[in-house]
Amino acid sequence: MSEHGTMREHGVDHGRGGASWAGAAQATLHCLTGCAIGEVLGMVVGTAFDWPNAAVVVLSIVLAFVFGYALTMRGVLRAGVSLQSAFRIALAADTVSIAVMEVVDNTVVASIPGAMDAGLSTLLFWGSLALSLALAFVVATPVNRWLIARGRGHAVVHAMH
């Protein structure tokens, strides 16, 4: 299979100078998976220990980046890349996407009355978190499409597949 055939499978078509929405959505979903794991874990841990809201948000953001990068690195390391190179690739591939998702996610949760103080067993806690992650996906997808079309973002990991 040619390089362009492989790239087209991942939503990049250099011949047309763009990226498909499906490819961007796939990249965003991949990034959102790690982001959501970290975000949910941070919210659950911080809420369970009754930490102040600011500490919960900071923990959630840090864990979102850690898990987002870790998922990308896992795939890149399988291709035989060194740990240091895999980390650099993950930074290049996911930083903008995770940052956009975290801004949207935390803004949405903070704007829902009572969501930051809701207990783990409440619909408000889980509903606001689900809504915030869904909206983060919607906002990050066009950003990822733009990045992929320019050979950036998730496009940098395609050579590893």
The helix content is: over 70%
How many domains? The number is: 1
- What characteristic shape results from the CA principal axes? globular
**What is the CA-atom radius of gyration, in angstroms?**
17 Å
Please mark out the parts with pLDDT under 50 across 5 or more consecutive residues, or reply none.
1-16
* Order of strands across the main sheet: 1-2
The separation of the N and C termini measures 12 Å
Task: Let me know the largest β-sheet.
Answer: 2 strands, antiparallel
Q: Structural class, from helix and strand content?
A: mainly alpha
Task: Note the run of SSEs as H and E.
Answer: HEEHHHH
Question: What order do the helices and strands come in, and which of them pair?
Answer:
Elements: H1 3-9, E1 12-13, E2 18-19, H2 21-48, H3 53-78, H4 83-111, H5 123-149
Antiparallel strand pairs: 1-2
InterPro entries: DUF4396
Keywords: Membrane, Transmembrane, Transmembrane helix
Pfam families: DUF4396
Please tell me about this protein's structure.
- With 161 residues, the protein is mostly helical.
- It has one domain (20-160).
- Helix content is 73%, strand content 2%.
- The chain contains five helices and two strands.
- It has a two-stranded antiparallel ribbon.
- A hairpin with a 4-residue loop joins strand 1 (12-13) and strand 2 (18-19).
- Helix 2 crosses helix 4 (83-111).
- The radius of gyration is 17 Å and the shape is globular.
